[in-house]
Write a structure and sequence with these properties.
The protein is mainly alpha-helical. The protein has helices at about 5-35, 55-80, 90-100, 105-110, 115-125, 125-130, 135-160, 160-195, 200-220, 220-225, and strands spanning about 1-5, 40-45, 45, 225-230. It has one domain. The strands form two sheets. The protein has a two-stranded antiparallel sheet. The radius of gyration is 19 Å and the shape is globular. The relative contact order is 0.18.
Length: about 230
């Protein structure tokens, strides 16, 4: 078995990662609008409640916990696909789904006592957070560790060579987050520069999400050929 990397594969992987990230924020924003009755400010990789929204900690918790469900579902599907030992296409897609969710920043946020899961738990159990100041940080960290570490280990084991394990793996674990930070900052700066209103901001972010989805779907077969039979020509 060999690792097959092409420019179209990298493009498709990046678009899948951006799409999952935006879907994550759209779910945040949609639940926030559902519980508050109005849409709040929206940008690239960010969302907020409306300024005049009167919401409880429980409602804030629901909106905060909603986004990670996208990541957890993608990781879960990836875990299942990686277990199919009869199909390199499924194993390839499983690896891509796990890495495209950007599990490393989720882990780093949880280790620092933050992140959507931990913050959502603190909001949901705000009455007890003061009594047990570190309890929900520990629960959030343990949960993220359980969700992300086993799939990452499985990806590492599936990769067919040492260069794949110690070059491809760390790059595709770390680089997507750096790329997201850079690109989203530039796009958000563009929105602020032209002082767009909220409806236009939503339209721009929606178009960006559809663009990422479209490029991913059009080239999705490339992700299924990450792992190929060593007897086949690359």
């Amino acid at each position: 078995m060999k690792l097959k990397l092409t420019p179209l594969y990298i493009l498709c992987f990046v678009c899948l990662s951006f799409f999952i990230s935006e879907l994550h924020d759209w779910l945040h924003a949609a639940v926030a609008a559902l519980v508050s009755g109005s849409w709040g400010p929206r940008g690239f990789d960010r969302w907020e409640f409306a300024a005049n929204a009167n919401v409880s900690n429980g409602q804030r918790a629901l909106a905060t916990l909603a986004g990670p469900l996208v990541n957890f579902m993608a990781i879960w599907i990836g875990w299942i696909k990686m277990g199919n030992r009869d199909s390199l296409a499924d194993q390839s897609m499983g690896c891509n789904l796990v890495l495209a969710t950007m599990p490393f920043p989720m882990l780093m946020a949880a280790f620092s006592g933050g992140g959507d899961t931990t913050n959502g738990l603190k909001l949901l159990f705000s009455h007890y957070d003061g009594m047990y100041p570190h309890l929900f940080s520990i629960i959030g960290l343990v949960f993220i560790l359980v969700v992300t570490v086993p799939p990452l280990i499985r990806v590492f084991i599936l990769l067919p060579s040492w260069w794949a394990k110690f070059l491809y793996f760390p790059i595709f674990v770390l680089a997507p987050n750096w790329l997201h930070i850079f690109v989203n900052r530039q796009l958000d700066a563009l929105l602020r520069r032209y002082e767009t209103d909220e409806s236009l901001a939503y339209a721009v972010v929606f178009f960006w999400t559809l663009l990422m989805l479209g490029v991913w779907i059009y080239n999705r077969r490339r992700l299924e050929t990450l792992l190929v039979d060593s007897e086949l020509p690359l």
